[in-house]
Amino acid sequence: MLIIESIHENIIKIEDGDTFFTISAEQIKGAYKEGDIIVLNDDGLYEIDKSATDNRRKSILDLQDDLFS
């Protein structure tokens, strides 16, 4: 799973499990933010996997709710 770890100007740091790599912002289609899950599409650009990102965010919120309730 590729997750946007941080954004510094036009450089995007990507987490892939225990490893990290960087790509340029021009390599991602559309709007993006930290925590988004991305996939490499057929034209060689990354795009946001909205469904996977939404599911991941929901899981994190559920864990927070369990922790603080």
Question: How do you describe this structure in short?
Answer:
With 69 residues, the chain is an alpha+beta fold. Helix content is 28%, strand content 41%. It has a 6-stranded mixed sheet.
List keywords for this structure.
69 residues, 28% helix, single chain, elongated, alpha+beta
What this model shows, in words?
By secondary structure, this protein is α+β, with helices and mostly antiparallel strands. Helices cover 28% and strands 41% of the residues. It is built from one helix and six strands, in the order E-E-E-E-E-E-H. The protein has one helix spanning 50-68, and strands spanning 2-8, 11-16, 19-24, 28-29, 37-40, 46-48. It has a six-stranded mixed beta sheet with strand order 3-2-1-5-6-4.
Q: How many distinct helices? A: 1
How widely separated are the two ends? 29 Å
Helix content: 25-40%
Percent strand: 35-45%
Radius of gyration: 13 Å
Uncertain stretches = none
How would you sum up the major sheet? 6 strands, mixed
Shape: elongated
Average pLDDT level: 95
Q: Which strands sit side by side, in order, in the main sheet?
A: 3-2-1-5-6-4
Secondary structure elements and pairings:
Blueprint: E1 2-8, E2 11-16, E3 19-24, E4 28-29, E5 37-40, E6 46-48, H1 50-68
